[in-house]
Each structure stands twice: as C-alpha cells, then as structure tokens.
Amino acid sequence: MPMAAGTTELRRSIGRNDLAALAINGVVGAGIFGLPAQAFALTGAWSLLAFVLCAGLATLIALCFAEVGSRFRQTGGPYLYAREGLGPTAGFITGWIWFLARVAAYAANLHLMINYLAFVVPVLSNEIVHGAAVVVVTVALVALNIRGVRNSTVASNIFAVAKLTILFLFVATGLFFLDPAQFHLAAPPPPDRMGSAILLLIYAFTGFELAAVPSGEIKDPQRDLPRALLLAMGVVAVLYLGIQVVCVGTLPGLAQSSRPLADAARQFAGPPGALIIVAGAVFSILGNLNLQLLACSRIPFAMAEEGALPRFLAAVHPTRRTPHIALLTTAVIAVTLALSRSFLAAVTISSMGRLIAYGATAIALLRLRSRPGATPAPFRVPLAPATVWLTLGLIVWLLAQVKLPEMLQTTGALLLGLLLYVLARKTPR
User: Fold this and answer.
1) Long-range contacts of residues 263-272, Cβ cutoff 8 Å, at least 24 apart
2) CB of 67 closer than 8 Å to CB of 381
3) 385: which DSSP letter?
4) Which end of the chain is flanked by fewer CB atoms within 10 Å, N or C?
5) Pairwise CA distance, residues 253 & 219, whole Å
C-alpha cells in the first residue's frame, strides 16, 4: 500500500518546543486532579506501584507512537498509522473510536473544569449558568483554533508553563509535610483491583498521542515528534508519582476526597493552597481542552481527505489555513454531548477507545517495519519486536479488565462508525 500523499494546504507552524508543550497538555489534563483518590481507594498505598506500572505502560505506548509517527508528515495520528499499516477499514475503525473517546473526554473535562471554578464562583453551580459556561468556553476555544494553529500553540505554551509550575510547586511543598505512617503497606491488593486502578490511571497518563495528530502542521514532525513524546512522558512520570506521594502522605481520608489535590494543599498550605490548586486545575484543563479541539478536529478532516467521511469536512479556511468545518463540527458534537449530560455514559469508552487505538498503532509498527518500500523511521523502538509484543500483551490485559456494559457500549459505537463508513464510501465524491 503506498503511503498517502499528505496534506499540503495546512500551515506548518508548530515548532519543537510548541510540540513538547502540546504533548504535555495532552497528558496533564483533568485526570490527575481526581484519580489519585480513586486509585488509592482501590489499592491503598500500593497505588504508588499502580502509578509506576502505568507510567511504564504509557512509556511503552509512547515509544510505539514515536517510531510510527517518525515515518509520516501527514495529519491523522492513530487513524493515519492504522490506515497505512493495517488498511482503510482498520484505519477508519481506529480513528472513529479514538475520536469518540476524545470528544467524550472533552465533555467530561469541561464539566470538571467548571466544577472547579464553582469553588470560587458559586453561581457556576447553577445548571443554566453551568450550561452557558460550557458553550462560552467552547466558542472561545473554537475561535482561537480557527484563527490559526499558531494562536493555538502559543496558548498551549502558556497553559503548559502555568500548570507545570503550580503542580511542581504542590509536590515540592508537600514533600516537607509527609506523614510516614500513611505509607504503611497492607497485604497486596488482588490483581483485578490493581488492574482496575491501572485502567483508571490510563486516563491520566495518556493523551500524548494528541500531539501526533496535527503532523501536517508541524515544521519537522519526523525529527521532533519522538523527542516531544518521550520528553513529555519523562516529565509526567516524575510529576505524577510525586503528586501521588504527596496526596497519600498528607491527606487522611484520601479515598473519600473528590478534590484530592485541593484537599491535600489545604492540609499543608491552608485555603490559599487550595485556591492555587484550583487555578492549576483550570490552567491544566484549559490547555487540555484547547489541544483536544485542535487534535480531534483533524481526525474527521483527515478521514474526509481520504473519502472515509463526507468531503466537506476536508475544507480549509482560505486565509487562516485551518480545517474550520471539521473544527465547528467537532465542537457541535462535543457541546451537544456535554449539554445532554449523556457524556457520563459515553465517557466509559474513553480508556477502552484509547487502548484500541494504541494496540492498532503497535501492530502497525510491526507491519510497517516488514513492508518493503515503507518510508524509513528516523526513530526506532529499542529491542523491538519484544518491546512491541510486551506492549500489546499489557493492552490486552487491560482490555480484559473492562466490564460488560462498557464493552457493549464500545461495540455499539464501533458498529455506528462502520455504518457511516459504508455510507461515505457509497456516496459519490
């Protein structure tokens, strides 16, 4: 199968440092502000091990993305990798389920951000005001993205610096207030509880692939993408483990906390500490939401370019050189999902959808390595294919932790996507 010709109409404005900030914004979003408590509820102090194991798995997946991504200069990310490595149908399924997972995550993260803001602006707790805030934030982010990818990346850089400064300050301060008794290790949790904790943490540790999607707008994706992904994973692994250490060591009753970082900061820094964490949550989630819109909109754009979705989604703004129709369509879907509150059901496919896309990318790596004439990969995964098979084994193990209702929801979403794919293929271009 020949490699795709690539996108030529989008403007390449994303540099090396911009790309690293995008990757960090993709990972550090809403999850880390809530999941420390849920992981602790499942595994107690063993949650530190769950964080380490999840960081290891996320790094293995990032390595696969680094190699496959280094082959391409086109827009598409997981959709592109699966399409070129596994064929058009597998590519569409991968792109579709990843798109749904990410749109659901956008809706969930946006609600969480507004809930955090309600901590200091109580009127946001009102349902009507809350809904209006959903629309206003999304309209502002869409306007920012339509104006040009450079605007989006500048905002991303600001959000990344702000969130990392606040979160590393939280860790550095909290380490002075640890209670060693809080780290007592009881009997190891059953494997299913550890598996459930890691499956939850995947939500917080992944998202780096968002930075790979707009490769058609990156100045030198084949060189810069691998560096950005691995740098982001290194920063996040250290930061997240430090956050969990501080939460476990400073917050009695961590398992019952709905805002674990804010509650922990209140323990050792008083109300001002909690307010700083609220600010950190807002910066963190805003950076993630900005990137979600940027990356998610490029999936229907790339699919439409290849005829897998209606062609109008591949339109590019005549002066801004952004996929404005795909952006608006993605935003409408996300806002509709958020306002209907049905995202609470849809978000259950988020981790599963990501894992499917990650597995497809790992398999594509092996297929592309064995294909004569494939574009060379400037970055190569060490000790492949053993590393890739280990990654696939861990992904299958995590998918086995998914409960039947979530499995059925994901299957329904896949069938809907296949129906759209068939209809698009039958429609004259």
Assistant:
1) 264/170, 264/174, 265/170, 265/174, 267/177, 268/173, 268/174, 268/176, 268/177, 269/173
2) yes
3) T
4) C
5) 48
The region, left, alpha or beta by phi > 0 then psi within -120 to 50, assigned to residue 148 is: left
Where is pLDDT greater, at 55 or 309?
55
Q: How far apart are CA 353 and CA 65, in angstroms?
A: 16
Kindly report which listed range (16-30, 135-149, 344-358, 377-391) carries the lowest average pLDDT score. 344-358
Phi then psi for residue 218, to 5 deg, are -95, 135
> Distance of CA 306 to CAs 21, 70, 301, 323, 396, Å?
29, 21, 9, 15, 30
Helix (H, G, I), strand (E, B) or coil at 8: coil
CA torsion sign, 107 to 110 to 114 to 115? Answer: positive
Give the type of residue at 368.
L
**Burial class of 191 by CB neighbour count within 10 A (0 to 12, 13 to 18, 19+):** exposed
Maximum alpha-carbon separation in the chain: 68
pLDDT for the residue 427: 67
What phi, psi does 14 have (nearest 5°)?
Answer: -95, 115
pLDDT exceeds 60 at position 5: no
Higher pLDDT residue, 263 or 8? Answer: 263
